[in-house]
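Reading a protein record of the kind used here takes only a little practice. Each token is a code from a learned vocabulary of local backbone shapes. With that in mind, consider the following protein and its fold in token form:
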Amino acid sequence: MNRTRVGCIGCGNISAAYMGTLRDRFASTVELYACSDLDAERANGRAREFGVTKVCTTDELLADPAVDIVVVLTMPNVHPLLVAKACAAKKHVFVEKPLAFTRELGKAMVETARNAGLQLAGAADTFLGPGLQACRKVIDEGRIGTPVFAQGFIGMGGRRERYQKEFGGALYDMGPYFLGALVSLFGPVNRVGGSARFFIDELPGDPPYRLERPTTSVGTLDFACGRIGSMVASSDLYGYLPRLEIHGTEGTLVANDPNMYEGPVTIRRPKGVEEQIPLPFSFAKGRGLGVAEMAAAIREGRQARASGDLMYHVLDIICAIREASEQGRHIALTSTCERPAPFDIGQLAAQS
């Protein structure tokens, strides 16, 4: 089988996690073929570190007919431009989260890929990992009874200008992992409520940076399947505080950190009884599982699980939380997506 050739645009910190996974776990089916970065020295360093075949400019990478999938690992504000360019060059695209900062840009990205007959997928793909796949199996088998309420929480020490300006703060940066996990467990959301506040409205600097997005947001989620949930994302807290729980009529499922592929998964029963759930496979660190799954989807002629539709639906939820707060009402979503099919790493091994 010919290997799927991947070109990575952006060679910053997260690129090492992607390149390491693709080299170490999926070398039989995915080739790290090319990389580019505005800093040519940084791109050359990544190429040496991970055995990337070709270092080039972004335009050269996009023009290379050997590249099958472009992996966009840049700052979010340039995601829309790079996706448009990649689609114009007839490349499938995997893009880091968030998809974009506005619905208009996100929707245009999805439609551009669809109209070109190309796949668009991206982060957050951590729901493909063994932790959240174990949660999916527990829920689908009824092991916590009827799910009643899901609760996502992420607190970040994020009062920094670069984090707020370039990554969008906790809701845009970390929210996609938690909301992607919830959509993978329960399917799409059809109505959102919310409360969002600026606990600070500017950060010190010369000149001071005026914040564009609330620093703490709380959303209520009505899923199309009839379940309800909540999402809390705050940049106003100290440290790193992730939590995802699904409460059912016969127990509470405590998931792994949705920012990671793997971690402890437990069921808590009445009277304090706790059951550790075995994970279906191992994927302890890194990024890039979604890229490998996307490559398999292209070969099989199906939609990648971490699809552009799912990414846009998550962005729609994020935007609706703020709008619900500003307008003092629930927001009915117009977007939707398929609940991704269950996944096991053996499905990729079968392709090698």
